[in-house]
Amino acid sequence: MRLIIEPADGVAPLLSAIKRAKKSVEIAIFRLDRKDVEMALGAAAARGVRVTALIAFANRGGERSLRQLELRFLEAGITVVRTADDLTRYHGKYILIDRRVLYVLSFNFTRLDIDHSRGFGVVTNRPNCLQEAAKLFEADCTRTRYAPKVETFVVSPANSRHVLGTFLKRARKQLLIYDPRISDKEMLRILQERAKAGVEVKVIGQVPARTSFEVQKLAGTRLHTRTIIRDRRQAFVGSQSLRAAELDSRREVGLILRDPKALKKLIDTFESDWTRTSTKSVSIPPDAVDAPVEELTAASTKEIAKAVAVFTKELQPLATTVKKAVGQAVIKAGDEVLHDKDVKVTMKQVVKEAVKEAVKEAVHAAREALPPRRAE
Questions:
Q1: 145: which residues sit within 8 A by CB, 6+ positions away?
Q2: Which of 76, 185, 290, 302 is most buried, judging by how many CB atoms fall within 10 Å of its CB?
Q3: 134 φ/ψ angles, rounded to the nearest 5 degrees
Q4: pTM as predicted
Q5: Which residues contact 337 (CB under 8 A, 6 or more apart)?
Q6: Distance, CA of 94 to CA of 374 (rounded, Å)
Q7: In CATH, which of 3.30.1600.10, 3.30.413.10, 3.40.718.10, 3.30.870.10 is domain 154-288?
Q8: Which CATH superfamily is 2-148 part of?
Q9: For residue range 237-275, what is the model confidence (pLDDT) as tens digits?
Q10: What is the C-alpha separation between 80 and 167, in angstroms, rounded?
């Protein structure tokens, strides 16, 4: 078993995997804007490898790009299958090479995720994981039901709530968690209970409720991975956050691993990220630890609404700033840049992500500025 760490490892491990394929490449795609990955898949098909791309029926704001990708794949001799629309999203990211090696990723095949975000990928040749991944791929390609048989292969909505809930409950000493946003009431309650029982719980990400454990934002790098390290002996790496939608109504894929070398890399990376994050943490007084998660979440929601109202006015000048920046880019690159479809799509995605991150930063800052409130 091997671990891919982004942005450090870059796209090279994925390109090498595709280039080594002899018989088949089966890839599940939610987003893809890497030309090098697309070209590697096309080259594999050209040399006789059976390449099958399972492409999400939709993603937020990117349906047009997905349909264009499908057409380019078909022209390159790649078999294209579109997921069903029975789930709100098909968000899993994984690659099967010759059905002998499996890559399960927490990141998309995009420049933003691979080059500028914290993400992990697990590479394994364990037979049970290979069999489950192949079974899942075939089920989603044929739009038939997937029934999980291996708990270390975590699939939403099939078994993730049960498996991840149990995984958290079994922590005895420590939980180190990367998660962009934990909001599921059941999972929050489990984390509170573990913290109250003496388990050290550290979260890099966001929790929309006051907690009895430490929560910090990732500094210097965009956070995209979903990872849980339990007692330094096991870890979960996947695409599902501890949120109701990602546990119950979306296709998400992850793995639970025990490999000592991979675990050490995960732990070292977490500890390095933790030391360089903001020293500020979110907590509540000891006498409020038992406050219902529902009340805490409701209070947090009201605070967020106030913060959004305040910062909406401040963010209005952002549109003008973006227009000026685009204008300057056109002057430097020439008018023809506006007619390049790939450039236009990329620019839209970059601007969208920049605005989204700016809003998140503003809301977080507003919440920290609010006076602490005690649970009643």
A1: 139
A2: 76
A3: -65, -40
A4: 0.76
A5: 329, 330, 343
A6: 44
A7: 3.30.870.10
A8: Endonuclease Chain A (3.30.870.10)
A9: 999 999 999 999 999 999 999 999 999 999 999 999 999
A10: 35
